[in-house]
Amino acid sequence: MKACGEVKALQEAKTVHEHLIGSFSPLKISIYNRILETYLKCGSTDDAFDVFEKMPRRNLTSWDTMITGLARNGLGEDALDLFSQFKQAGLKPDAKMFLGVFYSCGVVGDINEGMLHFSLMSSDYGIVPSMEHYVGVVDMLGSTGNLDEALEFIEKMPFEASADVWETLMNLCRTHGHLELGDRCAELVKQLDPSRLNEQSKAGLIPLKESDLKKNEKKKLASQSPLEVRSRVNEYRAGDTSHPANDRIYALLRRLKEHMKEAGYVPETRFVLHDIDQESKEEALLAHSERLALANGLLTSPARGQIRIIKNLRVCGDCHAAFKIMSKIVGREIIMRDAKRFHHFSEGLCSCRDFW
Description:
By secondary structure, this protein is mainly alpha-helical.
């Protein structure tokens, strides 16, 4: 099950689940929790809900897994409802559960409720916030666009903020186009942990020279997007032109771009860091790994079928906007798991509500 979850192989996960049910009775609660985690990692919240409801017993890990997993799939309201049910049952949350609660509040855009839970975790439950909790709150504030509030929150922390805190805010500044504050955060990350230079450069906030990279680190910076088609996982890299269907893939992307422009799409070329002309920047956006994966998925998967993509980095703002429009144009549901969360694109909308 763990392997299925890592590569988001939903059909294989269902097969393993059926085998476990048929071979072992009753299942241990730890196995149920692994099944829950796998379905949520695969983006199948319906299957996760079904397993959760049928579990003969649940422990704290069961609730933790569901709350965080639902939020990462864009179902923040369901996650918060589940947290309310948990408390109404007289159960006591642990420190880990509050991380899922903060994430859920960020998904629904309710920072007031999130800050209330941050206060209650110590006053009502005696949990002292750790650095990880502060990272979670900064992520909640920043993902909803409240970057100044996130900075103020950091400045009021009772101890020095870690590189994780500043890197979280730095990445959110990149997402929301607040590059001046992002540069300040990047410098602080560099001071606290110089080894994170590559991660900062990957976010586009500090220029990266070839000489700054070790040979074994170069692969880490490449944007990759595996695509699941008929239970096979295919991998794509940004700018790759080696795929056997390369000509068809790029031709489809160019046709889609024209349809998108007719629908009001304007390429956000600020996400292309190279010093090239506008037309070349638009062409570079087409070569992002998730777009290559999507195009081949459209060419090789059944009509109207769901397309699943995994991205090893956070999706850029332009691809996010493009995927929303493309989901409506092609009439497909597109599920993408990036480094931050799940994005369910359908009918021109994303489950993240543009908070990521």
